[in-house]
Design brief:
By secondary structure, the protein is α/β, with parallel strands linked by helices. It contains eleven helices and nine strands. It has helices spanning about 10-25, 40-50, 85-90, 95-110, 115-125, 140-145, 170-180, 205-210, 240-250, 265-275, 305-315; strands at about 55-60, 130-135, 150-155, 155-165, 170, 225-230, 255-260, 280-285, 295-300. The strands form two sheets. The protein has a six-stranded parallel beta sheet, with helices on both faces. Strands 5-4-6 form a three-stranded antiparallel beta sheet. It is globular, with a radius of gyration of 20 Å.
Length: about 325
């Protein structure tokens, strides 16, 4: 992907937001000197769940066992892939075409992903009353596929697209069929290419492969300015989701972070808000996190096995 400079934007305010988005993407979360006692953390988190009504925030680390890489883990996508910012998507037609060529391939592969034991364990905890709701930063829809309800997809999901000109929505299935009709043989030409699906649902393609792709327009107005219904880096979370999140935080007894480093501010702010309200915050994550030094219970471990141990502790397995 082209690395945009500030001069690519005519508007300084847009350029400033773009720079902030790049800083958020590039933020490195490293290990601190925070002591880790996994046994004590496990017991503490189990006590939170026994009390019930715990709000869960999940990140990309929940879906790695389903074949979708995370951003900042040991094999994270940020090592060789930078997601597109909202400003690039909105103000560069070539960048938008590049996204759709890559997403056309990646979304089809993401559809093949299935919930893993972490998704099912969280759904089971929710059904038992331990969880008030699941807030996810992921866009893969796997929590719902695992049977969870009351799921707030904070950053949207890949199930529909919207025209930026007339605001008409279309299901991703319908849009994908139209892309397939416009690109006969495109996927077959890539069958032998080893392409990794990124957390945001796209894959890396060469410029030649992008040029070979044909975009389709809005069904209603014909505009080629189509956007997946997801929140990009540099884009604000919709106000109705923020309001719903605030309500969930206020009505929940505590917060459990699962598979997220809360490197971006929206997740980190949740931690600060809950701690400020005097509510416990637990973490289950395979790597370091931005809030490790602040949380009540820090459990460094693989997400799926750790959640299964908690099911045992609560006699739910």
């Amino acid at each position: 992907m082209a690395r945009w400079t500030d001069s690519a934007f005519d508007n300084e305010e847009i350029a400033a937001v773009h720079r902030a988005a790049l800083r958020s993407i590039a933020r490195v979360v490293s290990d601190s000197d925070t002591p880790i006692d996994n046994d004590a953390a496990r017991a503490g988190i189990a006590s939170m769940l026994r009390a019930g009504n715990v709000l869960v925030l999940t990140g990309a680390g929940v879906s790695t066992e389903s074949g979708i890489p995370d951003y900042r883990g040991p094999q994270g996508a940020l090592r060789d892939h930078r997601p597109m910012t909202y400003q690039e998507f909105m103000y560069d037609d070539a960048a938008r075409l590049r996204y759709w060529a890559r997403a056309y391939v990646g979304w089809r592969r993401m559809k093949q992903a299935h919930p893993n034991r972490a998704h099912y364990a969280l759904a089971e905890l929710q059904a038992a009353g331990a969880l008030s709701a699941i807030v996810t930063q992921n866009v893969d829809g796997l929590h719902a596929d695992a049977g969870a309800d009351n799921v707030l997809a904070l950053h949207g999901d890949m199930s529909r697209v919207q025209c930026l000109s007339c605001r008409e929505f279309e299901s991703r299935e319908s849009f994908d069929r139209r892309l397939e009709d416009a690109n006969p043989g495109y996927l077959q030409r890539l069958e032998e290419v080893n392409l990794r699906v990124n957390p945001d649902g796209d894959v890396d393609l060469s410029e030649e492969q992008v040029r070979d792709f044909t975009m389709v327009g809005c069904r209603l107005c014909g505009s080629l300015s189509m956007k997946p219904d997801v929140v990009y880096f540099g884009e604000a979370v919709p106000a109705d989701r923020k309001a719903r999140l605030k309500q969930l935080q206020e009505s929940s007894s505590g917060l459990l972070l699962v598979g997220t480093s809360v490197a971006v501010m929206s997740g980190y702010k949740m931690v600060l808000d809950m701690l400020r309200a005097g509510k416990p915050v637990g973490v289950i994550n395979g790597g370091p996190g931005r809030a490790d030094a602040k949380v009540t219970y820090l459990w460094r471990g693989m997400v799926g096995p750790s959640l299964e141990l908690l099911l045992d502790d609560l006699d739910l397995s």
